[in-house]
Amino acid sequence: MTFLATVFVFGLLIVFHEFGHFIVAKMSGVRVLEFSVGMGPKIFGYQRGPTLYALRALPIGGYVRMAGMDPEENKESQGRTEHADSDESVDFKENKEVRGNTYDSGSFSNKSISKRAAIIFAGSFMNFVLAFLLFIYIYAIVGTPMFTNIIGDVIPERPAAMAGIEPGDRVVAVDDRPVSNWAELIQEIHPRAGEELRLLIDRQGSVQEFRVTPMLDPERNVGQLGIVVDEGTIYHEKQSLLTSIRLGLMNTYMLTSLILESLFQMITGAAPADVGGPVMIVSEIGKAAETGWSNLLMLAAILSVNLGIINLLPIPALDGSRLIFLGIEAVRGKPIDPAKENMIHLIGFAFLIALMILIAYRDVIRLMGGG
């Protein structure tokens, strides 16, 4: 289950990210040479026009290869005429008049800075779109897991127990405000520590009134009655499409803000740099898959936003650094030397691989109970 869930989540994130690059490149007139999901040896490939659509053996990433994307390729192609292969004739029709020239209108490097920036940014943007769509699907189709207003257990010597409330009681109202599930009940209790509440409780068909005062939980700073949810009463509540869209936008925005705030705190030292790598992610995917489809999709949405944000960081070899180089090109009026840019990306890629190995090692130690 963990393997299948991991392939599904990683595949979903990769396909959406690379499709963002792919579709904007196509819309911008860039000739896409390959759209690959996975890395390493090719398992399956389908050639359509100039584009090879491939599935590769290692599910650790993907890529879209475009003509003129590699700075070294652009440098080497100067002074050399580009010719079309037989299966690329359609895409080269627009270039018939320049075949004797070195200019290639389908090259990434020959597009405006704004178009190149849009192509690069589109990958991360699609990760935010994926999270938004997943939230809509969760709320409208799957439904969010909810618990009913039935009490599963009562903690001894706490306010509820001392008031005579028992397991199996169903809270139907708090101070004449109806509650239909556990979340609504908690919303009434948590902010009212020290304030007497009047609970209407259905006990085996007989509605009774109980007066109880929540005690303050100093750690969470919320009111508590000492009642525990009945986990056997879980159900899924579906929302309307409009409500799901609103909740999807709200959750995507709030999740993005939370991740950015956490990154800022880690960078400034206000919070420990406690991050998980691929091993920990696979472990969490396995746990989510065991608890249900809704939780797996929720985790996929969270990971998608994380991937979108991380790819926009100004770290060499990531999309964020390529956007920085385009910004420098816009200011200077000419691109940075291709050899220097390639070297920077190469160093950045080596650093990322080393960091991933280190984090993966730490994840294994933590999962084995080594702290």
UniProtKB/TrEMBL annotation:
The prosthetic group or cofactor this protein requires is: Zn(2+)
CDD domains according to UniProt = cpPDZ_EcRseP-like, S2P-M50_PDZ_RseP-like
Bilayer-crossing residues are 117-142, 296-315, 343-361
Could you tell me the superkingdom of the organism this chain comes from? Bacteria
Where's the PDZ domain?
A: 131-205
GO annotation (BP), single = proteolysis
- The enzyme's E.C. designation: 3.4.24.-
Q: Name one GO cellular component term.
A: membrane
A GO term for molecular function: metal ion binding
Stretches for region Disordered: 72-91
Record's keyword annotation contains Hydrolase:
yes
UniProtKB keywords: Hydrolase, Membrane, Metal-binding, Metalloprotease, Protease, Transmembrane, Transmembrane helix, Zinc
Which EC class is the enzyme in? Answer: hydrolase
> What SMART domains does this protein's entry cite?
PDZ (SM00228)
How this chain sits in the membrane, per its record, is: Multi-pass membrane protein
Q: Where in the cell is it found?
A: Membrane
Record family assignment: Belongs to the peptidase M50B family.
Name the NCBIfam families on file.
RIP metalloprotease RseP (TIGR00054)
The molecule here is called Zinc metalloprotease
The gene behind this protein is: rseP
